[in-house]
Amino acid sequence: MANGICFGNVVVDCKNEQKLCRFYKQLLGWEKQEMYGHPAVRSENGLVFLFVQDDEYVSPIWPDELDKQQKQMHFDFQVDDVVVAVQKAEKLGAVEAKAQFGGDHFVTMIDPAGHPFCLCAKG
Q1: What are residue 12's DSSP bridge partners?
Q2: How are beta strands 95-96 and 106-110 bridged, if at all?
Q3: pLDDT tens digits for 40-81?
Q4: Confidence at 2, pLDDT banded by 50, 70, 90
């Protein structure tokens, strides 16, 4: 920890914080909790995704398009079996992005709030 600063949480903006929290809890199998009055999920090693509702939230367009809401960041999740992980994500409400660039290495998905995330083959 340099200068007393350490990584805290990942805050994910969305229109429906409860719905998106449920999605990531089921996708990742992390523990659900509440922090600062908002729903969150926490991994075994302490990584926290904190979901914050913003009624003005606009879903990003992916791949990027000029003059449209751009993604600010995205998650890469390492998985044992990409095909199985894609099927699970779709069952939970994600959709496979129309544009794919990962070949056999990863599949880009869109979560229920419109955030892109990738399911990547381990190794």
Answers
A1: 51
A2: antiparallel
A3: 999 999 999 999 999 999 999 999 999 999 888 899 999 999
A4: low
53 lies in the same domain as 34: yes
Say if residue 89 is in the same domain as residue 122: yes
Mention every residue, 6+ apart, whose C-beta is less than 8 A from residue 9: 35, 40, 48, 49, 50
Cβ neighbors of 88 (< 8 A, separation 6 or more) are 27
Place of tokens 């099927």: 87
Rounded Cα gap, residues 115 and 86, in angstroms: 15
Q: How far is CA 57 from the centre of its chain?
A: 15
- Strand bridging mode 38-42 / 31-35: antiparallel
Q: 33 and 68: one domain? A: no
Give the count of domains, the chain: 2
Whole-model pTM above 0.85?
yes
**Rounded Cα gap, residues 57 and 4, in angstroms:** 32
Count Cβ atoms below 10 Å from residue 54 Cβ, excluding itself. 10
Whether residue 17 is found in the same domain as residue 41: yes
